């Protein structure tokens, strides 16, 4: 039995899609806060169980009989350590044989503020005594691709990453890596630093948008504080705007670069290129 937490999120759904190519649906449990959003997973034969990161009492039943658990990090920055602790404690009580956690690229040395909660969670996992694998995921290319429509409209892509090189990969690549680890034996104790095969600057990113959309888009680099204010001005909540601005600033310091190719080795193929992700967005636009 393999339990996927946050299973109706973007990454969770992709992990389940990858797992379904490897194991019967009856062996997969989707742990979700709102089962109504998981009817499509139920239709595939996946078991859907209700569990809430903020409600520790919901996890014991959900993890009963589980052999492996994928703990997808919560999206609620600032609350994640306690939320993750609830799952880790339940995994220990249930005697889970492998706990896989989606952390952050080089979380122990990253200049990104996001690293603090991930390292705290990694520490909790180690202290729990539950066999584990840490997937230190780099940036999702989709994080930047989401801004393409506005960039094309205004002829400018804004950020504060300077000339920092970003080795991102498609969300589906990271999902495939998680599915690979969950269906292998002998993985316990491993820490993977996962990132895309090739890296780019945001100037190069804007250049690829220009090439594919046939309209000039320039990268405009801003100080972190100004970039945060820009994000606030277009309606992003303060915590999310601060997170994105800090992450871009961290990218300028090399925080989103990695050239170890551990992701492509793990999934057995090259990671999805920047051009391919942009092209996919262009097709759906």
- Say which CATH homologous superfamily of the largest domain is assigned: NAD(P)-binding Rossmann-like Domain
End-to-end C-alpha gap: 39 Å
Helical amount: 40-55%
Q: Ranges with pLDDT <50 over ≥5 residues?
A: none
For this structure, the quaternary state is single chain
The Rg value, from CA coordinates, equals 19 Å
Q: What is the CATH class of the largest domain?
A: Alpha Beta
Reported for the largest beta sheet, the result is: 7 strands, parallel
Helix and strand succession? EHEHEHEHEHEHHEHEHEHHHH
The CATH architecture term of the largest domain is 3-Layer(aba) Sandwich
Shape: globular
Give the DSSP E fraction (strand runs of 2 or more residues).
Answer: 5-15%
Secondary structure tally, helices = 13
Strand order of the largest sheet: 3-2-1-4-5-6-8
Helix/strand/pairing category: alpha/beta
Please give the number of β-strands.
Answer: 9
Mean residue pLDDT: 95
Overview of this protein structure:
The strands form two sheets. The chain has a seven-stranded parallel beta sheet, with helices on both faces. It has a two-stranded parallel sheet with strand order 7-9. It is globular and about 55 Å long. Helix 9 (202-213) crosses helix 13 (274-284). The model has no long low-confidence stretch (mean pLDDT 95). The protein has two domains: 2-137, NAD(P)-binding Rossmann-like Domain (Rossmann fold, 3-Layer(aba) Sandwich); 139-170 and 195-258 and 271-285, UDP-galactose 4-epimerase, domain 1, CATH 3.90.25. Helix content is 45%, strand content 15%. It is built from 13 helices and nine strands. The longest helix has 15 residues, at 80-94. It has 285 residues and is of the alpha/beta class.
């Amino acid at each position: 039995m393999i339990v996927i937490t946050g299973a109706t999120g973007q990454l969770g759904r992709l992990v389940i899609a990858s797992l379904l190519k490897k194991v019967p649906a009856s062996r997969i449990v989707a742990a979700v806060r709102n089962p109504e959003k998981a009817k499509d997973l139920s239709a595939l034969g996946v078991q859907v169980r209700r569990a809430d990161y903020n409600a520790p009492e919901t996890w014991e039943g959900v993890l009963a009989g589980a052999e492996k658990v994928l703990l997808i990090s919560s999206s609620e920055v600032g609350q994640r350590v306690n939320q993750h602790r609830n799952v880790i404690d339940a995994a220990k009580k249930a005697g889970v044989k492998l706990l896989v956690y989606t952390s952050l690229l080089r979380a122990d040395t990253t200049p990104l503020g996001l690293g603090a909660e991930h390292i705290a969670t990694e520490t909790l996992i180690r202290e729990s005594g539950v066999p584990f694998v840490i997937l230190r995921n780099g940036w999702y290319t989709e994080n930047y691709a989401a801004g393409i429509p506005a960039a094309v409209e205004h002829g400018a892509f804004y950020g504060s990453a300077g000339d920092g090189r970003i080795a991102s990969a498609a969300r589906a690549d990271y999902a495939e890596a998680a599915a690979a680890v969950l269906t292998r034996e002998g993985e316990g104790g491993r820490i993977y630093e996962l990132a895309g095969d090739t890296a780019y600057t945001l100037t190069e990113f804007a250049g690829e948008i220009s090439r594919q959309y046939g309209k000039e888009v320039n990268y405009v680099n801003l100080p972190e504080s100004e970039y945060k204010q820009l994000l606030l001005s277009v309606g992003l909540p303060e915590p999310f705007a601060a997170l994105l601005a800090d992450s871009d600033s961290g990218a300028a310091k090399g925080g989103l670069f990695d050239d170890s190719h551990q992701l492509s080795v793990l999934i057995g193929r090259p990671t999805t290129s920047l051009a391919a992700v942009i092209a996919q967005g262009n097709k759906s636009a």
